[in-house]
Specification:
The complex is a heterodimer of chains A (492) and B (109).
Chain A (H helix, E strand, L loop, with lengths): L13 E2 L6 H4 L4 E2 L3 E6 L5 H16 L3 E5 L4 H9 L5 H6 L3 E5 L7 E3 L6 H14 L3 E5 L4 H4 L3 H18 L2 E7 L17 E10 L2 E11 L8 E7 L2 E4 L15 E2 L4 H6 L5 E2 L3 E6 L5 H14 L4 E5 L4 H9 L6 H6 L2 E5 L7 H15 L3 E5 L4 H4 L2 H17 L3 E7 L19 E10 L2 E11 L9 E6 L2 E6 L19
Helix pairs in contact in A: 12-14
Chain B lengths: L14 E7 L4 H17 L4 E7 L6 H4 L7 E6 L4 E4 L5 H8 L12
Parallel strand pairs in B: 1-2
Antiparallel strand pairs in B: 1-3, 3-4
The chains are: A alpha/beta (492), B alpha+beta (109).
Chain lengths: 492, 109
């Protein structure tokens, strides 16, 4: 018996937007030849998204576009998007873009009988034909409702317009302002029903986050979650959740930790490439030292390392590590080490993830360090931080990046309990412990777990000296207040 | 510079009217005849009508910001006024052209 429904040939054709992340979220782009509604409140980024759709369409896909502006003049629009790096004037010159500003001044108009909006059709048709446009933006057509009072005619004509756009075969973005209780103030979602994207700009506890959600996409599978997005000098970047499935390849290659005795503890070779490593410990135990040694080692191998520092500035790191004999300047100067230093409370969690995504895509590192991750608690709630970290680990793994995270624990009873509970997604866990004996504080290091390799279960003394990190046997730790390495620790 | 404090001298100035249509449809023919009637009655001898067919010259829609069809634009005397519709509502046409003050605004320009 022939299968009835699997006709893949007739699958909906898509129009790639070229906006990083958006094509992933929509599984290929917007529905080709149909109108997509982009709605959201004022300032959420609708116009920018629409402009970027046209600009990238023209520049990256060779598809000219027409922008019908109902709110801003062509000059205002051009100026506003210049900060995103878009030069509309040049595109107009090259006949890749046409901007038509439609001005509706209610005080100028007197309605004296039957009419239709054929004038709009003529203008749009002429603009499309003059540059053979394949993409169109109407921003925002709801302005018509404030200029003309006959809503029956307006609605009928808008319905006609969307049918006309389909016949013309152009892929259109129609923007609409969010209504109270409805997607758009004038109910445009009635007419534009193939694809609806909602943009949101939320401020929680003084930190703002931009989110995008595909509310509806007829005929296509799409992510239904909210995805954070950034707007910066390269335009919009959407952060898709990376592969929900866990089909990351597992490498057998090993990379050195940068600390020879530590490599020894890890089966003699170091970490598996592409795995996630957690270095946790209370304040002052030496987590950053381990992290920076790993970073320097990757530069030594000629590999790029992206170091996210949420506590210390680049200058501080360089200075502090010099005191234990580690020279970070070399890696920085050669361009292999890039330190990105920012306060965790500077933006929301989603923005951090989006930034990381972006920097990783730009810099293409083989190694990433996040030092520390525990600060994210201050930037969001506990559950939010947890989910963000899962996504971060997922992002690294999907690209085969070896990731090292440091986390502050608060000493005390259960040093293996990190605030955010990500131990299950961590492959290798190094634990630094403060121990006290006879009035002397010392630090111990041991490998709590390391998946896939035989690792040392011995607890070693850990010291930072002018010549670097020194590991020693810690014979008396059995007597110390600390815990012997083999004991079952809850919370793993 | 338009003097908006004193209304335009409607008794002697030449009126320039531009009627935008989209093709020769029954509606555009009706609109034109409605317009002629109003002009003959109120502006005899001092008006000029120019009919622009956007299907022939689509690029002209942009200049006068034409959206609706039919649209009548009063180019002179200034300021520019736009009247949208088939001009069947004569009262509204006169208000729109400012040939008669509207009841609500009491004759302001």
């Amino acid at each position: 018996m022939e299968p009835i429904a699997k006709d893949v040939k007739n699958a909906l054709a898509k129009c790639p937007t070229g906006i990083p992340g958006l094509d992933e979220v929509t599984n290929g782009g917007l529905p080709r030849g149909r109108p997509t509604l982009v709605c959201g409140s004022a300032g959420c980024g609708k116009t920018l998204l629409a402009v970027e759709f046209l600009v990238r369409g023209a520049v990256e896909y060779g598809e000219p576009g027409v922008f019908m502006a109902f709110e801003e003049t062509a000059e205002e629009l051009t100026q506003n998007v210049r900060s995103l790096g878009f030069d509309l004037d040049r595109l107009v010159e090259k006949k890749l873009l046409e901007v038509d500003y439609v001005r509706i001044e209610r005080s100028e108009i007197e309605e004296t009988g039957e009419y239709d909006l054929e004038g709009l059709f003529v203008r749009l048709g002429h603009a499309i034909d003059s540059i053979k446009a394949k993409r169109v933006v109407l921003d925002t057509i709801e302005v018509l409702f404030s200029g003309l009072s006959n809503t029956a005619i307006l609605r009928a004509e808008i319905r006609r317009l969307f049918r006309w756009l389909k016949v013309k075969g152009v892929t259109a973005i129609v923007t609409g302002e969010r209504g109270a209780g409805t997607l758009t103030r004038q109910g445009l979602e009635e007419y534009v029903s193939d694809c609806v994207i909602l943009l949101d700009h939320r401020v929680t506890e003084q930190v703002s986050t931009r989110r995008l959600r595909v509310v509806k996409y007829r005929g296509s599978v799409h992510g239904t979650n909210e995805f954070p997005f950034l707007i910066d000098d390269t335009g919009i970047t959407v952060v898709p959740i990376t592969s929900a499935g866990m089909d990351h390849p597992a490498s057998v290659e090993r990379v050195s930790t940068g600390i020879a005795p530590l490599d020894e503890m890890l089966g003699g070779k170091g970490f598996f490439r592409g795995t996630s490593v957690l270095v946790s410990g209370s304040a002052g135990t030496g987590k950053t030292s381990i992290a920076t040694h790993f970073a320097a080692a990757s530069c030594g191998r000629g590999e790029r390392c992206l170091y996210f520092s949420f506590e210390e500035s680049q200058a501080q790191l360089v200075r502090n590590l010099r005191s234990i004999g580690l020279d970070l300047e070399k890696g920085i100067k050669s361009g292999l080490l890039r330190i990105h230093s920012v306060r965790p409370t500077f933006y929301g969690l989603e923005m951090h993830l989006a930034q990381m995504h972006k920097l990783i895509a730009e810099f293409k590192p083989q190694v990433v360090v996040v030092d520390p991750i525990s600060n994210f608690i201050s930037a969001g709630t506990l559950t939010e931080a947890g989910s963000m970290l899962v996504r971060m680990v997922d992002l690294m793994k999907s690209q085969g990046i070896t990731a090292l995270f440091t986390a502050l624990t608060h000493g005390g009873n259960n040093p293996a309990q990190t605030d955010v509970g990500i131990s299950s997604i961590i492959d290798t866990w190094l634990l630094l412990r403060n121990t006290e004996r006879d009035g002397l504080r010392s630090v111990t290091l041991h490998v709590l777990k390391s998946r896939g390799m035989a690792h040392s279960k011995q607890v070693h003394g850990f010291r930072l000296t002018h010549d670097g990190i020194v590991l020693s046997d810690a014979p008396a730790t059995a007597q110390a207040r600390g815990v012997v390495g083999n004991e079952e620790l809850p919370g793993i | 510079m338009v003097d908006t404090m004193n209304p335009p001298d409607i008794d002697t100035e030449l009126w320039e009217l531009r009627l935008y249509v989209a093709g020769q449809t029954p509606k555009s023919v009706t609109t034109f005849s409605n317009l002629k009637k109003v002009c003959e009655e109120h502006l005899a001898g001092r008006y000029r009508i120019e009919v622009i067919d956007l299907l022939v010259n689509p690029q002209l829609a942009k200049g006068d910001q034409i959206l609706a069809i039919p649209t009548l634009v009063r180019k002179l005397p200034e300021p520019i006024r736009k009247i949208v519709g088939d001009l069947s509502k004569t009262e509204r046409v006169l208000v729109g052209l400012q040939l008669r003050p509207s009841k609500s605004s009491g004759g302001e320009a």
